[in-house]
Specification:
Length: about 300
Amino acid sequence: MTIFHVKITPAVEAVRARCQPHHYILRRPPLSPLDSTQIYLHGAGELRDENSTLDSSRFPRFHIYCDESSQTGHRYTVIGATFCRADMAPRIAAAIEEAIAPFGGTTELKWQKVKRKTLPMYQALAKVYFEMLDRQWLYFYCLVVDSTLVDHKKYSEGDGDLGFTKFLFTLLFKFARTFRSQNLFYCFLDDRTTKHRPETMQQALNARVRRDMPRGYDPYRLVAFTKSEKSRLIQATDVITGAIAYELNQHHGAAAPAAHKVAMMNFVAKCAGVYTLAAPTRKPGARFDIWHLEFPGPPRRPTFGRKW
């Protein structure tokens, strides 16, 4: 693999010192003899499973950073994920810092913080993100859910939060289906208030793998909530996911849309090499993949797309 070196300027180093590394020490009963207490030094590229018998040279480690957009009050909910090798995570974070440093940087990147004055910084973020995608440093996958087709009463015991958790499960399980070789997955979810524990999600993911594609080990080694302000990769995921949700929910077609948001949406589509962010990508499993969840029953006419 080609190695790209990222210059660490004093401005970048100052932000990195504030944002990372930070420590997650999770103590819980092991899921299997192969799983145990895990210590993750976020952004430092160091991750180990204590007492694990898995050879890291045979079992590559990958990180999945998830965030969602338009979860409530909109027709379309979008759950996005940035996927990368564990040893590339600090390089990606450093590249993001270097891209936004000339614009003064910020403590947290968010789609909601895209303003007229900050638009150039967010465009620089999108540019470097898709450059890294083209260099095969990362993947971006997202799941689009049409809320008008969701029946939480029938399938989620009337619990919308449980329904959302199931959709998140669907996206995370996609990585086991897509990458069927001997991989280990460490999933970092944007922190949210919920009664559904990420450890339960991890157990369910591994149970599904054992049922559908037995591997002799549990590939999902960690599923944990992470404060978005501590993770540039979750923040970048939020921005790209927000641009997709913005177009899907027709905000750009409002009577007086925010010009800076429309400009950012168009810039993300240009960087991704697609005409619209609202339609499913033509090649499932590509490095940039927009996946619209299909529901049983007769198809309904979608309302997404650009208005000219």
